[in-house]
Amino acid sequence: MAFAITQTCCADASCVSVCPVNCIHPTPDEPDFGTTDLLYIDPATCIDCGACADACPVDAIFPAGDLTGPLRAYEQINAEYYAGRDVLADVSVAPNFHRWAPPSFARVLPSDFAPLDVAVVGTGPAGMYAVEDLLLHTNARVTLVDRLPVAGGLIRYGVAPDHPSTKKIGETFARFHDHPRLRLRLGVAADPGLADRHDAVIYAVGATEARRLGVPGEDLPGSLPAATVVGWYNGHPEVAPPDLSAERVVVVGTGNVAVDIARILTAGPESLAGTAIAPEALARLRSSKVREVVLLARRGPETAAYTRPELLALAARGGLVVDAHDRRVADAIEGAAPGEKAAWLQGVPREKVDWSAPPPDGRRVVLRFHSAPVAFAGDAEVRAVVVSGVEGDVEIAAGRVVRAAGFRGVPLPWLPFDEEAGVIPNDSGRVSGRPGEYVAGWIKRGPSGGIGANKACARETVGALLEDAVAGRLPARRRRARARLFGRG
Q1: Which residues form the domain of 61?
Q2: Cα distance between residue 376 and residue 155, in whole Å
Q3: Residue 408 has what DSSP assignment?
Q4: DSSP symbols for 420-486
Q5: Are the C-beta atoms of residues 405 and 439 closer than 8 Å to each other?
Q6: Deepest of 68, 238, 297, 356, by most Cβ within 10 A of its Cβ?
Q7: Rounded Cα–Cα distance for residues 394 and 256 (Å)
Q8: Where in 20-112 does DSSP place strands (E)?
Q9: pLDDT, averaged in runs of 10, over the chain (489 residues)
Q10: By the 8 A CB rule, do 485 and 188 touch?
């Protein structure tokens, strides 16, 4: 019996390195690594050893025969990834997925390499993968800084509370907080003086600002960035609770964050009891008037931003509907081949929605494609979203709007910043024009990729730092100040 990888896969490739038969793909050196929804186990090659399940930091891997309910589909999903890929064929005809690459040693450190003092800013995945790399593979001393009083970053405040397995990776990271070569400083804001007190600084501060839509009425009361809603139900200390008195909420975007918001706002409160949801959020959901959440996509179902695992979780719960206002949507879904993104919606009910009427009884999520928002209507607050579509401009009555169309980084005043891309300009993690200062994660590459994508990103950054240290390119720091920092001298 083969194993299968399921919904909560973080794609950090911990399972790849322990598989004795190289049956988990894509691997970090393969082209589609970081772009697939999850990693996949080849059922024809898996020997059922279970090493991958033991190594998985988010409990996403199970024997295929033990899968039940919504997870049952993942046996086929894993197998589909390998369909049509002749693993026994010559590599000139098809890629050979089971040939081991020759060993490589990307880093070589001198035997007398002196310990570095490195500051890492941010306790989310990118920062913690950098910390893990430094502590396990070098003799560096690390100061880990976060402006919030609780560590965790994206894991703590960005992952939906009903995804406990995904949040479990936070436990993997937290074991480093007590490492003898790490000093944890919470509730402390980063400042330019960090570079004077350390040999190097890695900024892994994420991308926390909502991307602007550039439409009239965007700043009306009742228009909220996605980070506000996500932070609220995860108990972020700096986020005020949203008003849930509207029966219909429009979410601009169809990415995983948008799907998470729709799922939480329409979930039965009792189904969230016992999860990691903030107690205040659960109490507010019990009195919520929200009955319908509308997810707006600019394009069709063939290019929707959600991943298959997130859509499956939403559909399995029931109450998912596709707005049938545009024949192109039906054509794309009905004509999609197995495995194509539009085919994921085959079997999901489609109906024409009267947007001038209040939502029907019960709770549901409506996917509306080919609907770009052109304005938020209202005087004192949002009362409707105007979208363009095949039938012209349509007004969707809604008392609240959540903007979930992407994120961008926030500048650090002492570092350069690319306003257009929303990142700190860098070369393989090296901050442009700032020797000894580095970036990792979304502030480095933009808001793309899930948790596991930060592992390779952080490794590249740490590799650049070590390469600079060996080559003598790190600026001389005030040794005495660093010694005081760790209680030496």
Answers
A1: 3-82
A2: 32
A3: E
A4: TTTB--EETTEETT-TTEEE-THHHH-S-S-TTHHHHHHHHHHHHHHHHHHTT-SPP--HHHHHHHT
A5: no
A6: 297
A7: 25
A8: 24-25, 40-41, 61-63
A9: 92 93 90 89 94 95 94 93 63 47 80 95 97 96 97 94 91 95 97 96 95 95 96 95 96 96 96 95 97 97 94 91 95 93 95 93 96 95 92 92 95 97 97 97 93 93 97 76 46
A10: no
Longest CA–CA span in the chain (Å) reads 74
What one-letter code names the amino acid at 467? E
The rounded distance, in Å, linking the Cα atoms of 466 and 73 is: 44
CA–CA distance, 424 with 296 (Å, rounded to integer): 30
Q: What is the CATH number of the domain that holds 175?
A: 3.40.50.720
The letter for the amino acid at 354 is D
β-pair type (437-439, 200-203): parallel
What secondary structure, in 3-state letters, does 139-202 show? CCEEEEEECCCCCCCHHHHCCCCCCHHHHCHHHHHHHHHHCCCEEEEECCCCCCCHHHHCCEEE
Which pLDDT score, from 0 to 100, does residue 449 have? 84
Instruction: Verify that 375 and 415 share a domain, yes or no.
Output: no
23/9 same-domain check: yes
Q: Could you give the count of Cα atoms lying within 13 Å of 64 in the half-sphere of its Cβ?
A: 20
CB 290 within 8 A of CB 399: no
Total domains in the chain come to: 3
381 and 438 in a single domain? The answer is no
Residues ≥6 apart with Cβ < 8 Å to 114: none
Measure the CA angle with vertex 264, ends 260 and 267; round to 5°. Answer: 135
| Amino acid at site 8 | T
* Amino acid letter, residue 134: L
Tell me the residue type at 30.
Answer: E
Closest CA to 128 of 189, 180, 170, 187: 170
Question: What pLDDT, on a 0 to 100 scale, did the predictor assign at position 389?
Answer: 77
State the Cα–Cα distance between residues 451 and 444, nearest whole angstrom.
14
398 Cβ neighbours under 8 A, 6+ residues apart? 246, 248, 249, 250, 294, 382, 383, 384, 385
Listed residues 38, 67, 82: the one ending a domain: 82
Give, as one character, the DSSP assignment of residue 325.
S
For strands 200-203 and 209-210, give the pairing. unpaired
Q: Please, are residues 5 and 55 in contact by the beta-carbon 8 Å criterion?
A: no
Contact 81, 25 (CB under 8 A): yes
User: Long-range contact list for 152-156, CB < 8 A, 24+ apart?
Assistant: 152/123, 152/124, 153/122, 153/123, 153/124, 153/125, 153/127, 153/128, 153/206, 154/124, 154/125, 154/206, 154/451, 155/124, 155/125, 155/451, 156/234
